[in-house]
Automatic annotation (TrEMBL):
<feature type="domain" description="DOMON">
    <location>
        <begin position="59"/>
        <end position="181"/>
    </location>
</feature>
<dbReference type="GO" id="GO:0046872">
    <property type="term" value="F:metal ion binding"/>
</dbReference>
<dbReference type="Pfam" id="PF04526">
    <property type="entry name" value="DUF568"/>
</dbReference>
<dbReference type="Pfam" id="PF03188">
    <property type="entry name" value="Cytochrom_B561"/>
</dbReference>
<feature type="transmembrane region" description="Helical">
    <location>
        <begin position="300"/>
        <end position="320"/>
    </location>
</feature>
<feature type="transmembrane region" description="Helical">
    <location>
        <begin position="369"/>
        <end position="391"/>
    </location>
</feature>
<dbReference type="GO" id="GO:0016020">
    <property type="term" value="C:membrane"/>
</dbReference>
<feature type="transmembrane region" description="Helical">
    <location>
        <begin position="271"/>
        <end position="288"/>
    </location>
</feature>
<keyword id="KW-0408">Iron</keyword>
<keyword id="KW-0472">Membrane</keyword>
<keyword id="KW-0813">Transport</keyword>
<feature type="binding site" description="axial binding residue">
    <location>
        <position position="266"/>
    </location>
    <ligand>
        <name>heme b</name>
    </ligand>
</feature>
<dbReference type="InterPro" id="IPR045265">
    <property type="entry name" value="AIR12_DOMON"/>
</dbReference>
<keyword id="KW-0812">Transmembrane</keyword>
<feature type="transmembrane region" description="Helical">
    <location>
        <begin position="230"/>
        <end position="251"/>
    </location>
</feature>
<protein>
    <recommendedName>
        <fullName>Cytochrome b561 and DOMON domain-containing protein</fullName>
    </recommendedName>
</protein>
<keyword id="KW-0479">Metal-binding</keyword>
Length: 411
């Protein structure tokens, strides 16, 4: 038993090391804005740039600001690529205690289907969040020189404006919010819902215009934890659990008794997979609670179902399977339940891992091919064993195996 736990530990160590090297952390911090954007901003009256940043992880939006503190005059320029036929770019200030969508006093530029560029002011309320039309409305900022244009050599659509900041906006804690959307209501100055991923939800920041420094509300604090959450879930539910299933199905004597102690290996894999996966799930719950203003309900529901059913499997295994009752029929149903839940867990885990990868937009990185590689290898091993098993089963059933003696007789 001790030997087995040592080998299980070394397997886990290798798996964890492998994952940490494959899914090594990416740098998600906002960068200084690009040279071209900076020089364009300087040409456009933002002479002494107070703040200039490119939000690489947030649709690559670039924002430059110039504050004249005495007069509380703030010049802003916000640029982004609107790649689709229609699109909109928004930027605004939130006078509330946190940088968030609801309460933002926004300037929005819209690119319509026929190529017109429209612009207006919008007060974003909680009604917007629940899906009511977002139409132009008065805002509590004094705005001048507001325009929305296209800069050909940058391929950027750009919002530019001058704002006289009311006293309730603290220049050392200024909440700014930006957003990019694709859909626009036909014939109206009405931007429609933006995409629902972290790239669009992490688009808020509280900045200190005196020091020129910004502190992202979520990106900087929790993106590493998000990756840890992803890695733990991929190891637990996405790797160890399927390996345990392959051991139970194909190593217990059919097609070959390769692992005499298959049951112990199966239990070790499932227990460790459960502990790692459950830790990943708990981190996910923590992340969900930490990001108060948005959520991923489907991912959360699937995740919690995976955790709940995996817990039932473990409890069932520990408290019932080892103390079989006298009733064979009940044992049979229990075994059927264990199998059905086990296979369903694998499928739902796969779906949820892909959902998680999509939420974080990691589907455009090496994460997706890496996960497909792992899943593909496990699926390949599973399928090969299945084919061998069925081949052996059919040969046994139709007595297709012939030893040399019977072959002599048939001749
Ligand atoms: C066009 C109409 C819009 C609709 C229907 C809409 C709807 C939503 C919804 C449903 C969420 C996620 C809520 C959740 O998961 O609980 C959200 C989040 C967010 N939206 Fe919008 N939105 C719109 C426009 C805007 C605009 C113009 C901005 C920027 C000025 C913006 C910035 C944000 C941000 C930063 C978040 C992350 C959560 C937060 O900070 O509150 N949205 N939006
Ligand atoms: C089967 C595996 C997984 C389970 C059981 C799971 C579970 C969860 C749960 C319960 C939440 C909380 C959701 C909420 O309350 O809104 C969550 C959030 C999240 N998960 Fe997963 N997850 C899994 C896989 C992944 C993967 C593979 C990734 C990415 C590579 C990922 C990325 C995220 C992100 C980015 C969040 C939101 C964090 C935030 O709100 O800031 N998940 N997950």
């Amino acid at each position: 038993m001790i030997e087995m736990s040592i080998s299980a530990c070394s397997v886990i160590f290798v798996v964890v090391f492998f994952y940490l090297s494959v899914f090594s952390f990416t740098n998600i911090h906002a960068h200084h804005c690009s040279e071209k954007f900076l020089s364009e901003a300087k040409q456009r009256n933002l002479i002494n740039i107070t703040f200039c940043k490119k939000y690489v992880e947030s649709n690559g939006v670039e924002i430059a600001m110039y504050l004249r503190e005495k007069s509380r005059r703030l010049d802003i320029m916000v640029g982004a690529m609107l790649e689709e036929q229609t699109g909109w770019l928004a930027w605004g200030l939130n006078p509330g205690p946190v940088a968030r969508m609801v309460g933002t006093q926004a300037l929005i530029g819209i690119k319509t289907r026929n190529g017109d560029l429209l612009k207006d002011k919008y007060n974003i309320t909680s009604y917007t969040k629940i899906g009511c039309q977002l139409l132009p409305s008065p805002i509590d900022l004094n705005i001048s020189n507001f325009n929305f244009s296209y800069i050909n050599y940058l391929q950027y659509h750009v919002i530019q404006a001058t704002i006289i900041l009311p006293m309730k906006y603290d220049v050392s804690r200024l909440n700014h919010v930006w957003q990019l959307g694709i859909d626009v209501a036909v014939g109206k100055e009405q931007p429609m819902m933006h995409p629902k991923g972290l790239r669009n939800y992490d688009s808020t920041e509280t900045i200190n215009l005196r020091t020129g420094k910004g502190r992202g509300n979520r990106v900087h604090t929790s993106s590493r934890i998000r990756e840890v959450h992803g890695i733990l879930n991929i190891i637990g539910w996405g790797t160890l659990l399927p390996i345990g299933v392959i051991i139970a199905r194909n190593f217990r004597g059919f097609p070959l008794p390769w692992l005499p102690n298959w049951e112990k290996y199966h239990i070790s894999c499932q227990t460790v997979g459960y502990i790692v996966g459950a830790t990943g799930w708990a981190v996910g719950i923590w992340l969900g609670k930490a990001s108060k203003y948005y959520s991923f309900p489907k991912h959360a529901t699937f995740g919690t179902c995976i955790f709940a059913f995996a817990t039932i499997q473990i409890v069932q295994m520990v408290f019932f399977n080892f103390k079989p009752g006298n009733h064979e029929e009940i044992r049979m149903y229990r075994r059927m339940f264990h199998h059905v839940v086990g296979y369903s867990l694998l499928v739902v885990s796969c779906i949820n891992i892909l959902k998680g990868i999509k939420i974080m937009h990691l589907d455009e990185t090496y994460w997706l091919p890496a996960y497909y590689g792992i899943g593909g290898c496990l699926a390949f091993i599973f399928i090969v064993f299945e084919i061998v098993s069925w081949f052996k089963f059919l040969c046994d059933k139709f007595k297709l195996w012939m030893d040399p003696v019977s072959r002599l007789h048939t001749k």
